[in-house]
Write a structure and sequence with these properties.
The structure is a single chain. A hairpin with a 3-residue loop joins strand 12 and strand 13. The protein is globular. It folds into two domains: 211 residues, 2-Layer Sandwich (Nucleotidyltransferase, domain 5); 153 residues, ATPase, nucleotide binding domain (Nucleotidyltransferase, domain 5, 2-Layer Sandwich). The N and C termini lie far apart (56 Å). With 474 residues, the protein is of the alpha+beta class.
Length: 474
């Protein structure tokens, strides 16, 4: 029996798998987000408590002993802890926007581009570089009290095992890691004015760290493996590992990932190259800020339930009777496939004749266009898998296949937790049939006529987006 732990932004999950990759038990707990004036934070004790609770629930449901546990979770943000692994302040989320003025300045003076040319990562307000620089300027006492600036899963690993605080190459990829040496680039630290805080960067464990559990949530002595974070873990869980193959995660964050052996630091500074367990292999990642969160906002605003979405998507035609949505709802703007901290969502073409179905379809189409933009920028040439909460809507998956103009390998279940187990097994030498573990649950083919329509509509979307970006910079 193997357990995967996925510490998400709004939900913490644990899943137990047998040796064939079949899910035997799943447990989840919601965790809160504090949002105010662009500041987005989380309570680390609440997050860790949710981890212990879901592990207690899952392990109680299976009779067999747990041989191995793999850990993954949300990336970016800043999780400051003291020498005992306890929080010194609330965690700053990857969704946080307080450092947007700093990123604006770094965009204007060339710092963002200079960092990208060295590391392949384009900073955004919720990434560790800007957040640490903001805290250094506005809350230096918090940094003074901290022993290390961790990422989410690293905090959990530290408390589950008591092991020394470390991170892995995937989390460290943004923005300080040299993708070739797989160590920190001190020039980047200097460019961000953080040389005097260099000691806060967690040591990079390569390969990923493993340690025995202390006994909370998992039986004492259970092997726990830390990493990679949720985007590369999902790529492993969906089988998107061959160069050119891609994964689209339709979750809170809309993340496009393409496996590659080519490192191109000369293109537009956007997205990032995520280090993997194999040197010379990366994931070209374009993680847009908002995915299902945009649809959730529209559903809440219109009073529509999630279980009504499929019916409403069928109630209005492609194009949503002229309603258009640019789905950039995040308070920190957008980070992929471009960085625009001040970009905001736009809803156009609405009249008294517009219906909730039009608004829902237009939002799903807008998210699809954003996904197409990200996948093109990431260099997709092979197969495309899709996972995340959005896969629970068959109608949305059909719409997405049409908007993208390609078949979708739908991978359902706890894909991040599954990938965490696959990574843990690889780290510990446990043989798994990864083809069986990552087999898709369905393949959704696009409709040729609708795909042709959406190809034209996508070009119009890019034109509207460019005008919106110009207004954001004005």
């Amino acid at each position: 029996m193997y357990v995967g732990i996925d510490v998400g932004t709004s939900m913490v999950k644990a899943a137990a798998f047998d040796g064939t990759g079949r899910e035997r038990a799943v447990a989840s707990r919601p965790v809160g987000l504090s949002l105010r004036d662009g500041v987005v934070e989380q309570d680390m004790d609440e997050v860790y408590g949710a981890v212990v609770a879901v592990l207690d629930e899952v392990t109680a449901q299976v009779a067999e002993p747990v041989e191995l546990a793999g850990l993954t979770g949300q990336g970016d943000g800043v999780w400051l802890v003291d020498g005992q692994g306890r929080p010194v302040r609330q965690a700053a989320s990857w969704m946080d926007g307080r450092a947007h003025e700093l990123v604006d300045r770094w965009l204007a003076d060339g710092t963002v581009e200079a960092v990208f040319r060295r590391t392949g990562g384009a900073m955004f307000p919720g990434s560790p570089g800007p957040l640490l620089a903001w805290l250094d300027a506005h809350e230096p006492e918090a940094l003074d009290a901290a022993a290390v600036a961790l990422y989410c899963k690293d905090m959990v690993f530290r408390r589950l095992t008591g092991a020394a605080a470390t991170t892995d190459v995937s989390d460290a990829s943004m923005p300080f890691l040299d993708p070739l040496t797989r160590g920190y680039d001190d020039k980047v630290v200097e460019l961000l004015g953080l040389t005097h805080r260099r000691g806060l960067l967690a040591p990079v464990s390569d390969p990923v760290a493993t340690a025995p559990a202390l006994g909370e949530g998992l039986p004492a002595g259970t092997r726990v493996v830390n990493g990679p974070y949720d985007l590369p873990a999902c790529a492993l869980g969906a089988g998107a590992t061959a160069p050119g193959d891609g994964l689209l995660i339709v979750g809170t964050c809309l993340a496009a990932l393409v496996a590659t052996t080519e490192l191109d630091l000369a293109g537009e500074p956007a997205g990032l190259y995520i280090g993997t367990d194999r040197p010379g292999h990366w994931l070209r990642a374009m993680p847009a800020m908002v995915g299902t969160a945009a649809l959730d906002w529209v559903l809440t605003t219109t009073g529509v339930r999630h279980d009504e979405v499929d019916g409403l998507l069928a109630a209005t035609p492609p194009g949503a009777h002229g309603v258009r949505v640019l789905p950039y709802f995040a308070p920190s703007g957008e980070r992929a496939p471009f960085v625009e901290p001040r970009l905001r969502a736009e809803l156009t073409g609405v009249s008294l004749e517009s219906t909730p179905a039009d608004l829902i379809r237009a939002t799903c189409e807008g998210i699809g266009f954003a996904a197409r933009h990200c996948l093109a920028a990431a260099g997709l040439t092979g197969t495309l898998a899709v996972c995340g909460g959005g896969t629970r809507s068959p109608a949305w998956m059909r719409l997405l296949a049409d908007v993208l103009g390609r078949p979708l390998r739908v991978v359902e279940g706890e894909v991040g937790a599954r990938g965490a187990v696959i990574a843990a097994a690889g780290r510990c030498g446990v043989p798994l049939d990864t083809a069986a573990w990552t087999r898709p649950t369905a393949v959704v083919e696009p409709d040729a006529d609708r795909a042709a329509y959406y190809a034209r509509a996508y070009e119009e979307h890019l034109e509207r987006l460019e005008r919106a970006r110009q207004r954001a910079r004005a």
